[in-house]
Structures are given as C-alpha cells and as structure tokens.
Design a protein that fits this description.
This protein is α/β, with parallel strands linked by helices and about 525 residues long. It is about 35% helix and about 15% strand. The protein starts with about 80 loop residues before the first helix and ends with a strand.
Length: about 525
C-alpha cells in the first residue's frame, strides 16, 4: 500500500505497493478526511514563510507519566534475559487460502527483556519447491505498513524455494499498535491546513500537532520510547532465530531498506542475501529531500501529459501551471464532495498518490484531475484517503499513527522554529511539493525523544543489492546511489523508469537479477542499469 500522511510529509520515509488481501489477513484501509481553509491563494512557486508568532516558541512537550497498556502488551515469558523469547514455538495456523499466521512475543525494551513483552504478528506463504532455501522476510515500508499484507501480494514467482514471511513491525497493525486520536479527532486534525500562510492557520497547525502527539502518549505510553528501527531490527533478528535460519534473507521496499541497512550494521555476520528496493536516505546529507522526488515525478507526468494531449496543457509548463493554479484556488475555495471537502492539502496529497504508480497511474490522474477542474473532486479525495489510511466508513488504520511514531523515533530535529526555516529551504529545492508538504512540526512537538542516530555501513556483511528507480517520487534515486556507496558491500542496480519500488513486474531485467541473487547467490555487477 501507499502512504503519505499529510502531517508527516517530508519528515520521514515512505512505503510502496498496493495490497489486495484474501482470507483473514487484514489489508490497510483507504479513505480521507474533510478539510476547510480560509487562507488566500499563494502563487505557484512563491515561497511561503511563517511569521514569528508566540505559538512558534514551543519547547518539546512534557506530559505526565502514561500508564497506557496498548493491545498486545503481555507478561514476559519465563527465563533469564532473552532465553524465554528465544525458546518460543511459532504456532502457524491457517488464516486464509494458502497463508498461515502466527504471533510471538518480543521484549518491549531489549535492555530489560523481563519487564514487559509486546506482540508481533506474522504471516507466511510456504515454499512449494525443493530444495528449500529457508525464509525470505519481506517488508513493504512505511514506516508502519503491514508486512503480513505484503505476503498476500508479494511477487513470489521464481522464489518458490523460500517460505515468504512478513511481519507487522512493532507499533503497527496486528502487532502491538500505536494508538492516538480517535477517528473523529483524527478527522478534525486532518482538516488543518498543512501549508499555512496565515498566522491563525500556523497557530492552529501547531496546536493540533501538539494535541496529536499528546494523544499518542496518553494512549500508547512507553511503547513510543521503544519503537525505533533499531528496536525493529532486534525483532527481525529474533524472528530469524525463531524460524531456524542461521542467516537472514530479506527483501525490503522503501522504509524497509532502512530496516535492512540497519540490520546489516548491527548483525553483519548474520546477513545472508539482502535486497533493498527504493532506498531511503541513510546518510547525513540533506541536499536531496523527498519533495524533490515528487517534484521530479510531477514534472515527468506533466511532460507525458502534454505529449499525449491530456487536456491539461500543451506543454510541461502549461500542465504544471494548470495543476498548481487549481491547488492554490482550493486554498481559499475548497471543493465540496458530497458531505466532505477537497482542500488544497488533501488534493496535493491525492495527486502525490498517483506518482507512485508511474505511467499507468498518470493516465488515471489526467482524467481525475480534469474532473476536479470541472468541479468533481471525488476521485482526488479518494486518492488522498488512501495515503491517509482512512476507510470509507471514516475509520483510520494503524499506519496513520505508527508512521509518525516510528519516523520521529528515527529522526532528529531542532524544534518548531527550525522546522519553519527548513520549510523555506525545502521550497527552494522543490518549489511545488516543498511548499505543499508544509513545515515538519510533528517530530518537533513529539512527546518523546528520538533514539540514538547513526550511519550504517554494514561493515563485514555479505553483498547487499540496492535497487533504485530514476523516476521514483517518494525515495529519490540519489538515495539508492548513496546507500550503495555507504554500505561497504552495497551493489547498485538501477531501473530507468517511473514509480516507487521496482521488483515485482516492472522490469524483467531487474526481476531476473534479484531472483538470481536470492536463489543462486549471483551478485549483479555494481552499476547495472535496466529498463
């Protein structure tokens, strides 16, 4: 599935793919909230700044100790240290069609494993060919997307010698989940203008973000202090041990590449065959930001649109002007869609969703954007719903809450004022989505501090294949280049094409290279390029 929660855009990484789930394995929901705005339109490309108001002088919140016990909190198993966890039996049970499901316990805090346990939920598609190669763990990204769901639509052709296992990382979905606002309050939160150009909108966004973080602390408590990628990597190594594999075989998309790169750094001797597709940034170089990827993809769409007479403009520049003029008009005059409202923020989010799918999705966007220009915003609103993980009945899925919880645990920030400065800088790098993504207040107002940060190099690990697409909107291609360079055993595999995430049907060349590596250990030549 896709994700671009409006309130976290630009602050953390994204995920990939869309899910279709049989049986009892749950799939993420899709829909979105209503939004209203009274701000005046801002010309496309104009850098928006926020005046220094008293509300900007906000320190990191301090709340009373939370006694929350999220779903899946359990007593730690008996045994000293990790012995009780390592001695668990994985009880696989049928959960729909060819899939089996299980749950296991993991320590909330690996430094104090006997204090509190949490639940991790898994799904498996069993190997159908011999000789069996063990388990291939898969993760779709996010942070916060369901690995259990990924098992049901993962492109496993050619990998039938593996058990394909996906798990819902801690804090997400059927594992012990982060809980925050209820659905009604989340709707109200989503009605805020993400790119404020008035003092009142700025104050409202800061206040709403503060209350959102507060609700996460009140409803999730200590889970928020133990939800970083480092914690998830420890979980993954526990799962590797429980399925009986000496080395980890793994394929991760988008944020899943962060999990894989961190694993290679923390457990290099246990790395088997790792494929990291749609790489996130693991460096400390902030010259390339996520919004640049969306601006690039939007420009590619505009060029394609003009060449195919899509009725939005006869040149790339004309199409982009049509699109940004539409968004800026929505800032002052949102479009009614039944009993809901398509605002600038929701429309920008909805348009971003189409960027994930490349040309097939662009064809739909051209039609849906034309409809919105003619007064029918239903399709764009539904598209934004998918990224906000809101279902048609108004309920929100786990992703909306786990996304910032994990992202803020993995990031550093210098407060609210610095978020404003970075927003101005982002608009210089990406004039369209650098503007519409807005300032990154979420982590600046998050109720707990981030985890220790480091640059993974994977020193001593076996070869790691890093896949990047030149037109990827959510994880710019440069991220794959720098990840492959920073990982000492990294090997870069490039797809010259569009969309987010490559392995699984976009390129026969990429698919063959990945399958050969995972099944035979054949490492592709570094720098191999495919179409």
């Amino acid at each position: 599935m896709h994700s671009l929660p409006r309130w976290a855009a630009g602050a953390v990484a994204l995920l990939t793919l869309s899910a279709c789930t049989p049986g009892e394995v749950p799939s993420p929901s899709a829909s979105s909230p209503a939004t209203t705005s009274t701000a005046s339109a801002t010309p496309a490309g104009e850098v928006i700044g926020i005046s220094q108001t008293p509300a900007l002088q906000v320190d990191r919140p301090r709340f009373e100790k939370s006694s929350a016990t999220p779903d899946g909190f359990e007593d730690a198993p008996s045994g000293e240290g990790l012995s009780g966890y390592l001695g668990q039996d994985v009880d696989w049970r049928t959960c729909g069609g060819e899939y089996t499901c299980a749950s296991v316990l993991a320590p909330l805090d690996y430094a104090n494993p006997s204090d509190q346990a949490i639940t991790l939920a898994l799904a498996k598609k069993e190997a159908t060919k011999s000789p069996k190669l063990g388990t291939l763990f898969v993760n779709p990204g996010g942070p916060g997307a369901s690995g259990r769901n990924l098992v049901t639509y993962f492109a496993s052709k050619g990998l039938e010698q593996y058990d394909i296992v996906g798990w819902d990382p801690r804090g997400t979905n059927a594992s012990t989940p982060v809980k925050c606002f209820d659905d009604e309050a989340t709707d109200a939160f989503n009605q805020l203008d993400a790119s404020p150009d008035e003092e009142a909108e700025t104050n409202a966004l800061i206040a709403g973000t503060y209350e959102f973080g507060k609700s996460c602390w009140e409803n999730s408590g200590e889970l928020l202090n133990h939800i970083s990628t480092i914690d998830t990597v420890r979980d993954l190594d526990l799962l590797r041990d429980l399925v009986g594999d000496e080395k980890l075989s793994y394929l991760g998309y988008s944020y899943g590449t962060q999990i894989g790169s961190f694993y290679a750094d923390l457990f290099p001797q246990r790395v088997g065959r790792l494929v990291l597709d749609a790489a996130v940034d693991i460096t400390d170089d902030e010259s390339v930001i996520q919004a640049m990827g969306f601006d690039l993809a939007l420009g590619n769409f505009a060029s394609w649109c003009a060449e195919h007479s899509c009725d939005l403009g006869d040149s790339k520049e004309a199409v982009l002007t049509t699109l940004t003029d539409f968004l800026d008009k929505l800032d002052a005059r949102p479009l009614e869609v039944g009993d809901r409202t398509l605002t600038q923020t929701l429309a920008a989010t909805g348009i971003a969703a189409y960027m994930y799918g490349g040309i097939p999705a662009w064809q739909v966007l051209a039609k849906d954007l034309r409809a919105a220009l003619d007064g029918d915003g239903q399709a764009l609103l539904k598209s934004s719903d998918g990224l906000n993980d809101r279902s048609d009945d108004g309920s929100y899925g786990s992703l909306f809450y786990s996304f910032p919880a994990i992202g803020c645990a993995d990031s550093t920030d210098d407060g609210v004022v610095d978020a404003e400065k970075k927003w101005v800088e982002d608009q210089a790098k990406a004039p369209i989505y650098g503007k519409y993504f807005g300032p990154g207040y979420t982590c600046a107002l998050w109720p707990v501090h981030s985890s220790p940060q480091f640059k993974p190099t994977g020193s001593g690990a076996a070869p790691i294949v890093v896949v990047g697409a030149t037109g990827d909107p959510a994880t710019p291609y440069q991220n794959a280049v720098t990840m492959a360079q920073q990982l000492e055993s990294g090997v870069l595999l490039t797809y010259e094409g569009e969309g987010h995430g490559t392995f699984g049907g976009k390129s026969t060349c990429i698919d063959n290279a990945v399958i050969a590596y995972l099944t035979k250990g054949t490492v592709p030549a570094d720098g191999t390029t495919c179409q």
